[in-house]
Amino acid sequence: MKTLKLALAGLGAAALLSGISNSANAGPKFYFGEGRDLTVFLMGQIWTVYGTNIEIPGETDLEENKADMYIRRGRFGFKGHLMKNLSFKIWFAHDNLGRDDLNPVDIARGAVKTSGLTYSKLEVWDAFFTWAYDKTWANISVGYFRPQIGKESITSGFNMLSFEKGLPNFYVRRHIIGKPDKGTNEVFGRASANGRIFLVNWGGLYKAQGWSLNWNFGVGDNQNYTDSKNWSPLWSARVAFTLGDPEMKKYKMGYTQTYFGKRHGVTVGLNYGYQGEGIDRKAKRDNKEFDSNTMYGIDILANWGPIDFAAEYDVLSRDWADGADYTDEVWLVKLGYTHKLPNGQYIQPAVSYSVFEPDDNGESIYKNKKNTWWDVGVNWYIKKQRAKLILHYSSGKVENYKNGEDAKASYIGLGFQFKI
Q1: Residue range 261-286: average pLDDT?
Q2: In this structure, are 159 and 16 located in the same domain?
Q3: pLDDT, tens only, 300-324
Q4: Residues 322, 299 contacting (CB under 8 angstroms)
Q5: CB neighbours of 263 closer than 8 A, spacing ≥ 6?
Q6: Residue 360 to residues 10, 44, 295: CA-CA distances in angstroms?
Q7: Does residue 121 share a domain with residue 11?
Q8: What is the pLDDT of residues 335-365, one digit of tens each?
Q9: Which of 21, 239, 265, 310 has the most crowded CB, counting CB atoms within 10 A?
Q10: pTM metric for this prediction
């Protein structure tokens, strides 16, 4: 009997091990037969930033040369297939774990915090299913994820040329998705402004000789801009045309900014988002209701051998219910050059510049706070995006931050990124 138990245990262990893949390109993968599989993955960015040249109106006792070490982005989750043409992905985030918010070096979001602490929390980042009815023409995704508009917003922070994501990421999300209402005593939890809503999306990728077409059309329920009297769906659309090599081999909702010299192609994307009547509870104005909220823009990704170029221009427009309106603009450009080392690793100097320009009529949710940000540094890809060291200098300015005075902050950032 003892021998039989040991044999059964050995067979069970062998069966388990046979269902796990430990390839260099993925985390542990389990197979369950008939097109069913499950992959476990882990990702992280560990940052050390050292603040310099900090000037904030009304603050006289800030420690300028102050270091801060924290997990900027932490992710873990699961993805796989329930059947051959039905995939899923659910992952969780624990961003800014260990961050000192009283070290005001990051003004990419157009604001500088100098009092109080915000502690990191564990939250659902994405949770959706994709049914590939036709892998070219009909990929239907349902769940909690990002509307596919605004290239910087829908591109992972793990696949950037810059140290941090550019200004369109933060301003597009704030405008089209909004900031959640936590409640006066946070009885509704501590929701984040992560750019996700419940969404139904139709996407596809058609590839021809020398060109390709990628599209996404979505309709979603934006909970941040609703109340008992105001509700309308958020409509989103993105169509991207490529000359040369496509951005992806098959349809997916994942993008990058460098292909390590292997891609020779140019992609131009057109973006549009629209929501009718709603209410922006976080807007600092008397009448928070709006009749329409719109975003449209264009983005370019050009990869030609070692040269990587990304650019985006977005117009953010809102008509308030009291008859006022505003039109903001935000744009960025990025440039990188990827050099392959003899050992197969890559060194990539990169530079980025981005500007947010609010409407001068003062009706914007940002009033007249123009934001300018630039970044220059070197990315060292030890194992492409799976192991990466980054050393950058970033500097930003928010005009008219307080009492007509500007806020400024810069930092030297050292980061390590890993994907398992």
Answers
A1: 96
A2: no
A3: 999 999 999 999 999 999 999 999 9
A4: no
A5: 244, 245, 247, 303, 304
A6: 73, 40, 18
A7: no
A8: 999 999 999 999 999 999 999 999 999 999 9
A9: 310
A10: 0.90
> What mean pLDDT comes out for the span 285-307?
97
Same domain flag for 223 and 245: yes
Q: Which two tokens stand for residue 49?
A: 């930033």
What is the domain extent for residue 5?
Answer: 1-33
More confident residue, 260 or 20: 260
Same structural domain for residues 14 and 103? no
Strands 278-279 and 307-320: unpaired
Per residue in 181-234, pLDDT (tens digit) is 765 554 444 556 789 999 999 999 999 999 999 999 999 999 999 998 999 999
Number of domain units in the chain: 2
